[in-house]
Amino acid sequence: MAIRVYLDELLRERGMTAKELCAMVGITEANLSILLSGKARGVRFGTINRICYFLGCDVGDILKFDGKLEEDEG
Asked: Who is most buried in 35, 40, 60, 74, counting CB within 10 A?
């Protein structure tokens, strides 16, 4: 995946669990797990907005482009 997710690192830095973040953001643990694993194919801006708000971070702290073009498989 050309977009890397660094949410685990932010949670560790903040001393917060994924379960606590789910409760604050209003998403299921299953959906957060998909995002944390880097397997998500998309994420709503509203979800990113709430994650950034509750973690006190910027979108660029969570998602980073690895410089490669991801080719669609299919």
From this structure: 35
Exposed, middle or buried, 52 (CB in 10 Å: 0-12/13-18/19+)?
Answer: middle
Three-class SS state of 51: helix
pLDDT in tens, 1-40: 688 999 999 999 999 999 999 999 999 999 999 999 988 9
Q: How far apart are CA 57 and CA 52, in angstroms?
A: 5
Q: Give the predicted TM-score (pTM) of the model.
A: 0.85
**Beta-carbon neighbour count of residue 23 at 10 Å?**
12
